[in-house]
Known about the structure:
By secondary structure, this protein is of the alpha/beta class. It folds into 3 domains: 6-139, no CATH class; 152-241, no CATH class; 246-301, CATH 2.40.50.
Amino acid sequence: xxxxxxxxxxxxxxxTVVPNAIFxxxxxxxxxxxLYCWLFSHDSKTEMTVSFICGHFKxxxxxxxxxxxxxxxxxxxxxxxxxxxxKFAGYNYHLNDTATGKTDDGLTAAVFTAAVNPQQSxxxxxxxxNIYNKEILNKExxxxxxxxxxxxxxxxxxxxxxxxxxxxxxxxxxAQKNKWLDCLDKIERLDGYNLREIYKVSKELRNDEFWQNxxxxxxKLRNTDKNGIKYIDRFMVQHKAKQKPVGYQKIKGLKEFFxxxxxxxxxxxxxxxxxxxxIHEFQIRGLMMTxxxxxxxxxxxxGN
Length: 304
């Protein structure tokens, strides 16, 4: 499955024809309306990220994320989170031609996770419905009558996580302990993260001057921020951004990267200054696998 793509109703795919529904919807901001129209002008081949959007408009990431959330809340946009190998890979954006919050594929306007599975066809639109049924409907919390059994790995991890926090913030009752265990279980079982990696990130946060006063419970990891993004996804993306992608090692004599715009289409591309001279994006692509290049480009565009 591809990611960082934008999908709109097929009848609009070859034209920048904007549905009147967006203009007739009361209570929506002019900025969100404009962003919706701009998104409609792109086809599914465009790599759509918040960084890409910010590269076109003068607004920053916070402002763009706010407008995206507004479109989601109004039902004009569906943002699908995509994971590759259990790790956050990006989002796909599905535009709706009405404020019903339902796309041509039958998806409901809510943020949910789609797992990348190379064995499945990218052309099969029903994949999204199948993913929704498997990944969302199966996430029901067990009823109180069913006592949840946690794996030995989860129960052992609990004590290590608890020690990261001051005594006054650690679970004191069985109910509180079960909430933490349930959270750790879902982080691994549903969110697809390795608890060892989560522990490393949590330890970094507890040593951070800001987060040591704002990250006081493991439960925060599965909460969402003002943009509707889980903190665990946000933290893991930031953690990954600190680590240089594999692509770094495949450019010999690398000095630094630079960003430029392709004169043919105006799109942002990356280049690299090396000991043997400058190389541009098409040359960099030839040095590594497609997924390695995409990871490297996103890393460079994010300003790292």
